[in-house]
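Record 1 of the preview.
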Amino acid sequence: MQRRILLLITDLQIGGTPTVVRELAVRLHDDPDFDIHVVCLSRPGPVADQLRQRGVPVTTLNAGCRADARVVFRLIRLIYRENIDTVFSFLIHANAVAAMASLLVRDVRFFQSIQTTQPEPRWHWAVQHTIQNRAERIIVPSESVKEAAIQWAGVPPDKVLVIPNAVEMNGHPAARQQGSGKRIGFIGRLDPIKRIADLIQALGLLEAVFTLDIFGDGDERVRIQETIATLNLQDRITMHGTIERPAEALAKIDVLVLPSEAEGFGLVLIEAMAAGVPVIGTNVSGIRDVIEDCVSGLLVPVSNPPALAMAIRRVAGNLLLREKLILGGKARVRGLYDWAVVLQQYRMVLS
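->
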């Protein structure tokens, strides 16, 4: 029997979770056992266009604000109109809307996804605690998120299922010309939790031959620009803004650095590994689920620019280490995070 699945997300702007939804939707859409419909509460954005180009239907519920209860009834009408039998929601606002809809529909399975380990805002976890009983399973991308869901949302351990985020290993070049290790890159949302200022300060501790490319946009943009100006690093740092595909950025850098204080997973890490770019990350929840220190990347203490600078210098100054991290990263992706592996896990749950 073909499953008619609705994937529900808050928005479809460029970002980690919208990327996860896009890639899952496209692959399930290509599978005759599934009929897929992607729905966002508001702000469809570029990812909606990418989905439509691949033939995946996208609907916007046009929420006026986060507390717009009308989206619940719009979702219910859509469920009945499209004969949906499974709703899989991502992130707290979509999870809450799906939970409310579940009170008013019958014969529909509901799954929820949590993608973060951020402790704040606490009310998110309080809401998740209240609504988790409306889902058949809670799906998370890492053991760190599982621990957070159990501890902060009170989700029963046997209800949480870890299915990691994934990349298409065959979608990256088989070989990549190694650089000098001196072109540092950051890819992601410009958000305080990413601690991009730590990376900028680390660059200031390195020799002038090291440069930094920042790909992404967000609320921290002005503050980051002020930090760059204060440290007089304008000639060594380029801010590129939002990019639709990480491959564009990964082709321009020698090493990817993710200096966050917390991550649910760190999708960009496995995208870099698959592309043959060595990675450096902070030793925090989410990131240490992905990086094996000194095997598939380097881990450093959080909020420690000197340690970041030292790790970058190690990668740049040691060709054998770079080669080891590249090979280790590719092996880790191939074994754990390739869509060829991960899609089967989703199929087993959603079938």
